[in-house]
Fold this sequence. Notes:
This protein is α+β, with helices and mostly antiparallel strands. It contains one helix and nine strands; from the N terminus they run αβββββββββ.
Amino acid sequence: MRPSAPARSKGQAGVTLVELLVSMIILTIVTTLLIAGWASLQNSYAQSVKTNDARAEVRDAVARMSREIRDAQPATLTTTGQSPFTVANPLEVAFYSAFNSPGARADGTGIGVLRLTRYYFDTSGSTPQKTLYWQRDTDNSGTFTAADRKIVLASAVVNNSVPNTNVMPNKSYTAIFTYGYRDGSGNFTTADTIGSSDLVKIISVQIHLVVDVNLSHSPVYADLQTTVRPRNAPQN
């Protein structure tokens, strides 16, 4: 008589092929979700860092312009009635400065170290985002040439495509530089362009810089404004 096979215990039942496949599918789905979430967090972090760096660049640019314009001075300190400024329009301001020059004193003065300096907005190119530059007449030729030192102060500047709704509502752009002065009647007024004969009347310079800090996606603007009174400006 052949002995019967021992009965299989329920607690020793193995995993079927179907159960193994289902487990692998679930594990794959969970892993995919985790990787996608991690990638999304990485992209979000990278975008935040990029945006913060762009905002910091704008703050540094406005701070640099404010300090240097505040220390602007006439080409010769011994001659009265001179203006520190040589150009004053909405996209460029040029003036004499001893800022960061060897030999300059704490008050911004310093005979022999004055150099013609300018901040200007490069309007070349077809994109609405342009570049704001700082340049100094390093060879002391009295004009700006390609040989003079030039640095990028801010990129992705969009002042030329953002209408000005505050100072001059009729303008189709936002002036980077707006100038405060007293007119012939002694009243304080503002303009974004000052003629050469009226440069000496400039009392203050308003700086308004708009930068798109999110070029790769929907526009996000960093919009900074400040008003600077040059220490060598008229006192009235």
